[in-house]
Amino acid sequence: MPSHFTLGVDRIDAALRGNAGIDGLPRAALHELHAADKSDRTSAAAMALLFAQRCRTLEPDTRPILWISESGEARRQGRLYPPGLAELGVDPSTLIHVDAPDSIAVLRAAADGVRSPAIGAVIVELSGKKPRGLDLTATRRLSLSSQKSGVLSLLLRSGSDADNPLPTAAFSRWQVAAAPSIALAGNAPGHCTFDITLLRHRSGLYGLSARLEWNRDDQVFREQQSSERAPDTGAVPALAAVRTDHPGARAA
Questions:
Q1: Which of 79, 106, 125, 130 could lock onto 69 through a cystine, CB 3.0 to 4.6 A?
Q2: pLDDT < 70 stretches in the chain
Q3: Residues 182 and 222: beta-carbon distance below 8 Å
Q4: 216 exposed, middle or buried (CB, 10 Å; 0-12, 13-18, 19+)?
Q5: Phi/psi of residue 53, each to 5°?
Q6: pLDDT score of 243
Q7: How would DSSP label each residue in the chain?
Q8: Degrees (nearest 5) of the Cα angle 31, 37, 70?
Q9: What does pTM read for this prediction?
Q10: Contact criterion met (CB below 8 Å) for 248 and 79
Q11: CA distance 120 to 2
Q12: How large is the C-alpha radius of gyration of the chain?
């Protein structure tokens, strides 16, 4: 099993080598993703899922992805929507979703999931600036468990302050925002597009940023060059997988 996973973008993967000398990010580690704004929560969630999906496709790995969230937040923000997952190129049957009553229960379930080698990746979704129980000790436990089991751990944060985040033991910290896509042939909707910024890296790397498109057919990211970019009208584009007429549902 590879020790690292890549995004498929040479410039980004090479820059993420750090001290390991291997392209990409370590899979046996905890990585943190923040939504840049409230309107970017779906994009941050999709990016967390696609990080996990990259791990699955590079193996290939048949182990499921475990997604744990607070039930109250899921009611407010929407739940995972299987047809939307399929639009991202993710088989809904590869996901196990757990509704936990509060943030403490989320972290406990995550600790159990990360220790299990039967799980391919664990997405820990917590909202708010200071979720109860989320601290350096809790994230250090997740990080150490990931190192022992080899299970990728992803801490998904929404409603947080990315400029002044809580201290965690995450190997890397990312900020994710929605970005305009480029229309395909025949003016068809373009690929899901994200603006990502690296806020922290264990080796000291920071300031890395890119606009990435997700190709669901090839299961790989592509960097969108500035000369190609669609005009930014200020509107927040929805992911292609979002079905707005379905209450309580979201793509990722």
A1: 125
A2: 74-78, 188, 227-252
A3: no
A4: middle
A5: -65, -40
A6: 37
A7: --SEE--S-HHHHHHTTTTTTSSSEESSSEEEEEESSGGGHHHHHHHHHHHHHHHHHHTT--PPEEEEEEHHHHHHH-EE-HHHHHHTT--GGGEEEEEESSHHHHHHHHHHHHH-TT-SEEEEEEESSS-TT-SHHHHHHHHHHHHHH--EEEEEEES--TTSPPP---SEEEEEEE-PPPPBGGGB---EEEEEEEEEETTS----EEEEEEETTTTEEEEPPGGGPPP--S--PPPTT--TTSTTEE--
A8: 60
A9: 0.87
A10: yes
A11: 13
A12: 17
pLDDT of residue 122: 98
Contact 106, 124 (CB under 8 A): yes
Instruction: Tell me the torsion sign for CA atoms 203, 193, 48, 125.
Output: positive
Cα separation, 67 vs 124, in Å, equals 6
Q: In terms of Cα–Cα distance, which of 206, 174, 165, 163 is closest to 31?
A: 174
Task: Quote the tokens at residue 114.
Answer: 């990360």
Give the pLDDT of residue 248: 45
Half-sphere exposure of 232 (CA within 13 A, CB side): 12
Residues in the chain: 252
